[in-house]
Amino acid sequence: MELRIYLQILLKKWWIVLSTFLITFTATIVLTYTQTPVYKSVATYVIKPNTSFGDVKSLASGLDMLSRRTEIATTYAEVASSRLIRQEAAEELGLSQTQRKALSVDGQLLAGTNVIEIIAEGNDPDLVRDFADMVGAKMVVYVKALYETYDLKPLDEATRPTSPVKPNKMLNLALGAILGLSLGGGLAFLSEYLQAPLEEATHLSIFDNETGAYSKSYFRHRLREEMSRAKRNAYPLSLALMNVDQLDVVSKSLSPQARSEALRKVTVFLKQYLREEDILARLDETIFALMLPDVMEDDAKAMLEKLQTRIAWTPFVIEKSGVKLNLSSTAGVVGYRYNGTGQDEFLAEADRALRQAEASGYGKVCLSPGNGKDQSTQVE
User: Fold this and answer.
1) Least packed by Cβ within 10 Å: which of 4, 6, 49, 365?
2) Same fold, 39-156 and 206-378
3) Is residue 44 helix, strand or coil?
4) pLDDT tens-digit profile of 67-99?
């Protein structure tokens, strides 16, 4: 799919993209600004050989050993993170259980150095500073007995943080905007993907499967629209019902496949004599409806008479069986008179005209008695 098509989908479904973006971005703002801030304070300590290394050579040997045996510094860092040291520091500061739960501490060895960082995080900037320093002090006391030849000395005391490290507001808002646009675009494409099969199914349902003419449901929909347009603009509108009634008689000797082929041939035959704006639909087994916009009922009657003449003079050949059908039809015509007639009444009036034609015999076209004319024409 080309980029242009993606852009067209996004423009078509812009309201999905916009609404999803606004919802996601608003939720991000709310969560970001209601989240409890987290502060961080860091105290640093350095490990070095003590006075037990009397001369320069011994001191150099001690530094070399410290650099090669990283487990010494790593052990110090792990001590800082231990539950014991945390507990002693909390007790020394007189912290409540709630304050303790809000604090975390971690000891890290800076790569390539003998420097240890004590990192404390919590919701109170003063408390995280004091806790980092207290953990460091407790660690210094504890490790004295671990390695007597090395000392742990304070390098930098913890400072009071001035701004929280979490949440990162700008980063959160940027991610929220990106997420909102991504979700909006994804939902727009999903909506288009789901709508395509639905539109295809809707398109297919407007046709009658057996004949290829429009279906009854679609015809009623279009009839309602055309009646509204005719009434609004005072345009003529005629409706005709045609029964290819002889087909119902001869179909008893035909297979279902042959009967369907005959109906399709009748549909194709009628369509070639109709205008583009005319609507041909199948209403019943052998009854077709013709909606004729901008046509007066007298002209519609003349049109149906010509169609019936053509049907009567045209043999319909069933190709698979070679059977030739000579069909005749009857038709009823009614014109719309903008007098408040509803769709069902309009169809019923056309049906009455058709029944009158059927009662008069094959090949008749009758106008509805409601037109003020009781006319029927015999097609020779």
Assistant:
1) 4
2) yes
3) strand
4) 555 667 788 788 888 999 999 999 999 999 999
